[in-house]
Amino acid sequence: MATGEPLPAWGPLSMIGHPMTNALRSSVLTSSGRSGPRRSALSALLATALALTASVALVAPAQGTDGELPPVEEVAAGDGPDVGGPDPLVVVAPGTAAIEGDMQVGATVQVTTSEWTPSDVELTYTWSADGVELPDETTAELSLTADHLGTELTATVTGALADALDSVTATAGPVLPGDLSLAPTPTISGTVRVDAEVTAVPGTWDSEVSLSYQWLIGGQPVAGETGSTYTPPAADKGQTLTVAVTGARDGYTTVTTVSEGAVVAAGTFPSSPAPTISGTVRVGSSLTAVPGTWSPDATLTYQWRADGRSINGATRSTYTPQATDKGRTLSVVVTGSRDGYATTKLASAGTVVAAGRFTTVPTPKISGTRHVGSTLKATAGTWSPGANLTYQWKRDGRSISGARSSTYRLTASDHARRITVTVTGKRSGYAAASRTSSATGLVAKPFPRTVAPKISGTARVGSTLKADVGSWSPAANLTYQWHRAGVSIPGATRPSYTLVGADYGKTITVKVTGTRSTYITASRLSAATAKVGKPAPTLKKDGTYRVGIDIKAGTYIANPNDYCYWERRDRPGRTFAGVIGNEFSEAQSIVTIRSTDKYFVTEGCGSWTRLVALGAARTSFKDGSWAVGSQIKPGLYTAPGGRGDCYWERRSSFSGEFSAVLENGLTFGGRNSVRIYPGDAGFLTDGCGTWTRQSS
Fold it and tell me: The whole model's pTM is what?
């Protein structure tokens, strides 16, 4: 509704005397008076009154006699009739308040005020730091923590009685750091000397204090030495060592205390064991001085002695007694030194040097072929120290007369025996040593009689060849290996071998190998067969044949001289209804007869032969049916065509059924192109000329 517009014709409206009006007047009078909060309360009450006025007007409209509302009488706040009642309560705060106590972290402060009016008001407290209220602090006391450091504190005390209230505020600050109550002087625990660890004992500080350390030499901090322990190096010898302990706590003043000084003394070896000698004390045997574990590490030097006298030049940690040391007492003196430490010498116990022994006595090895008439050779290996070597050959453990050189030629007496050789080494001052080789296998000799095998059978694909071995003397264990054009055929290791398509046009041989214990393995090779021909035909004449009886299921190929017609049938006779699949061709023809077929009819096709791969697949071919993969390679082919028509088919099988045609084409003259895929079973072409492969 716009300002100045007349009110709707609801009739007279007046809040005078309304019960809500009396309640509002009472609240306003009670809240009026001395402070800003009271003025805010009055404003809120007036707003509520206006809202209630509007509500009453909307709920209880009344029209005048003339259909318009009478003018509304504006009444100023507080101008209504006096309805009577008691005087309102008034709370009066004291003029001042104060924050008492030490203004530093760790202390407790308290806000105090003088008397309130009336005296029985209920007091509440609010604290703030730098103007930010502390919500959990609602008592007259406040314990100062590190969070209050540097802030100005404000305490507000509010007195309330019934609906009347008043407040007073006190301010103090800033809050200062606290003082640590305990800051003892540290001490140093341990012997203060080079390479001896000492420990700082800080004493008892306040429980929440964090301690840090700094070690000092001659009053100067040692870089990086800020732990509770310290090990003086050699450079500290003779200087004064102290430790500074610093205590820190949030909100408190940091305090540093320094221990009394202690002069760093020279270091001593707390552990310097007597040395020992490792190894067997005898001539030619390397010995090692074992100094033990010196603590701390020391620079060690050595001096070996014989009968208490220093051996010239024997100043290393190892020593090998010489022949002149035999029978003398050997010992070693170890001297330890370290910067800032006293030099220490310690001697081992003495041990008499025994006679020497060969340190390396290798077992000889025999090389050569263990056949009668062959020569064996002994390899003695390297002896240490060097020795004078002699040899003795033995047969089944018994010495062979006169066989004393490093080689030996096998004789007939050695057949079926085992041979060894013994090598003996000698050296002045050393005990003689001998080593015997491992025994050879049984000595073998040649078979007195071997026989070259002979091959029987027809050399054509699908036929089986057999190896006739004859009689060996003595009887031998025979193995076989068939060869195609001189190359071993994998897996062909039986006495017989069935020829496959890969053998077509090649010659076949067989090698027989005879083995027998104590006899030399021998092999004999047969003469070669003629070149392997094509498979034998399955059918040779025209006619009707029963499937499974006259001809087995499978894929067959024919190469007619003139024309070729065939049928796969499910019933006898020549009715068209019995034809499962058929084909007419003037060139190579292929058919797949299935086991479910009943009859097979052939006319003019000549001989039918099992289809096998004969040699490598072609990359060019002419008219006829061709098997993909075994006869021709898949790929992209082109043909020149001819003057007449050119017809071709890609086939999924050689069934002769129309459904076996994957793709076909018929052109009249001109160049042709077709891609034959690896998954195709076959390809038929007629009148297209020679197809030539262009790419894979």
Answer: 0.45
